[in-house]
């Protein structure tokens, strides 16, 4: 190893990012492990421009070598996996050039997810908020004199305010569940009783659409058979959303079926099913239902009071319980299955 390469090796160790040392002809004379990991072992003793196909790369090498200038380049690699790389090129001792590459792919995609999320939340809050301010203005302009009009507007304002409240409650519960995702809750929860309570709480909603509930329990399930390991409040949230969805999106006048059965291929697990009759959910929609704010028919779902966060919360809670959520839809019915660990 030449003294230059030796000093490079020490420095590369310190930096930790992918580093390469190029000689006056732009050939890679040394590189650290992260650089080999990124571009492959094949770069050793070859001109680096063969592996970085960016029109300005050769010019930045020249600028570093001849003018002693430090330059930066953003570069998207499209072979194999698409990666967003950030290159820094600097002069290094006599005639050599140092290239450092930072992989920004993950940071960029996290930033994108975060900004999409903020845009979604703002969008969801904007319409109820502008409705409320619009009505306040109309009331102040004199529409409040007429009692009937005033009551009508106030009722709409209340509904819009409740919608914002629901959205904020859902966001808070999503972030709470996410923060706890790696703690598995282990209380004994009687799911049969929990589902009975949930149905009772939603019976008015079901009645308004002339829907009724039916149980199908599969033998052999003893008295303790419907007990699982988990946290009652969170599991209530899961089934409240699944059953509420079945009422909201199911056909008026149809039957919503609830079932328990031992999970066939997973001893020690219990499967709970919520089935409804209604429009078939297409495959590509099924794959995206648990994304935040994803609604199949956004306008229609929003009119029904949905925020599109329900299934995202369900998914996180089920994950935290080390369970599984499966969704299937056919002309016959739409089926949401939750598999949970049984209480022994
Ligand atoms: N049983 C179902 N049948 C048909 N479509 C459904 C069913 N359950 C959910 N969906 C679709 O999935 C979307 C997302 O459901 P999710 O529960 O996440 O949100 P939401 O019901 O719109 O709002 P929220 O639950 O936050 O009040 C719904 O908007 C609806 O389009
Ligand atoms: Mg819902």
Instruction: Tell me the span between the first and last alpha carbons.
Output: 64 Å
Biggest beta sheet summary = 5 strands, antiparallel
Radius of gyration: 30 Å
Global geometry: elongated
- CATH architecture term of the largest domain: 2-Layer Sandwich
Tell me the strand order in the biggest sheet.
2-1-5-4-3
Percent of residues in helices? 40-55%
Return the domain count.
3
Structure keywords:
344 residues; alpha+beta; Beta-Lactamase; Helix Hairpins; Heat Shock Protein 90; five-stranded antiparallel beta sheet; five-stranded mixed beta sheet; 46% helix; elongated; binds adenosine-5'-triphosphate; binds magnesium ion
What can you tell me about this protein's structure?
The chain is an alpha+beta fold and 344 residues long. The chain has three domains: 3-103, PAS domain (Beta-Lactamase, 2-Layer Sandwich); 113-179, Helix Hairpins, CATH 1.10.287.130; 184-344, Heat Shock Protein 90 (2-Layer Sandwich), CATH 3.30.565. It contains ten helices and twelve strands. The strands form three sheets. A five-stranded antiparallel β-sheet has the order 2-1-5-4-3. α6 runs parallel beside α7 (232-249). The longest helix has 36 residues, at 105-140. It is elongated, with a radius of gyration of 30 Å. The chain starts with a helix and ends with a strand. The structure holds adenosine-5'-triphosphate and magnesium ion. Magnesium ion is lined by residues 241, 244-245, 306, 310.
